[in-house]
Amino acid sequence: MSDTKTNSLVERLAARFGDKLTVSVSHGAVTAVVEAANLLAVATALRDEAGFRFSELVDLCGVDYLGYGQTEWDTTDVSGNGFSRGVEGEALGRFTWADRPREVSIPNRYASVFHLLSIELNQRLRVRVFCADNDLPVVPSLTGIWPGVNWFERESFDLFGIIYEGHPDLRRILTDYGFVGHPFRKDFPLIGNVEVRYDPEQKRVIYEPVSIEPRVLVPRVIRDDADLMQAKAEAADHWREN
């Protein structure tokens, strides 16, 4: 959205909802954080009221903030010696939420994030709602307001273990019925807990402990790469010339 439309939306959200929302703007995108207790009332107003008209829920996903702000690689100090010498031992799965190495400005571990679109007013909004309980993450279901979110909430439940209270048919959608755990949680092993194979003697698929060893993967950090910076500069010059 343009800066004018963005500022207008922020002002309308603040005027309508007050302290029920915390609104921020980053890279031209407006994000509103709402408490779970206020979610359904706020969502209904965003859909129905004239200043918003968010008739479309485009996407919904779960988020696990366990590794937020953490890096596995000390790239600044040791990148000249090779990334393999920069492992800090703070990878996901090596600590719990309570014992995470660095404090971050995130109130709870799990959140549900959804993106809204107003076709009528040509505006977009991201809404984030944190789960109050890290051990049993629960937020209200939005299926009664935007029915199309049904499968998105099932996906979030399957992959993150977030329970959407009031969902008409909350069950797994991607993993097997007997799957244990939620694979997008940051403490879930990258290699998984079990592997499957077909046993010709038993004539069925059987589950076994994984037979591969975990290893450190590529750096999960954002770097200022000179080549990428040069490519961006050349692309900008190309657009200006044409």
UniProtKB/TrEMBL annotation:
It catalyses: a quinone + NADH + 5 H(+)(in) = a quinol + NAD(+) + 4 H(+)(out). InterPro entries: NADH_DH_suC, NADH_quin_OxRdtase_su_C/D-like, NADH_UbQ_OxRdtase_30kDa_su, NADH_UbQ_OxRdtase_CS. It comes from the Bacteria. PROSITE patterns: COMPLEX1_30K (PS00542). The keyword Translocase applies. The keyword Membrane applies. Keywords: Cell membrane, Membrane, NAD, Quinone, Translocase, Transport, Ubiquinone. It is found in: Cell membrane. It holds the Pfam family Complex1_30kDa. Its EC number is 7.1.1.-. Residues 33-192 form the NADH:ubiquinone oxidoreductase 30kDa subunit domain. It is a peripheral membrane protein. NDH-1 is composed of 14 different subunits. Subunits NuoB, C, D, E, F, and G constitute the peripheral sector of the complex. Belongs to the complex I 30 kDa subunit family. NDH-1 shuttles electrons from NADH, via FMN and iron-sulfur (Fe-S) centers, to quinones in the respiratory chain. The immediate electron acceptor for the enzyme in this species is believed to be ubiquinone. Couples the redox reaction to proton translocation (for every two electrons transferred, four hydrogen ions are translocated across the cytoplasmic membrane), and thus conserves the redox energy in a proton gradient. PANTHER family: NADH DEHYDROGENASE [UBIQUINONE] IRON-SULFUR PROTEIN 3, MITOCHONDRIAL, NADH DEHYDROGENASE UBIQUINONE IRON-SULFUR PROTEIN 3. This is NADH-quinone oxidoreductase subunit C. It comes from Dyella flagellata.
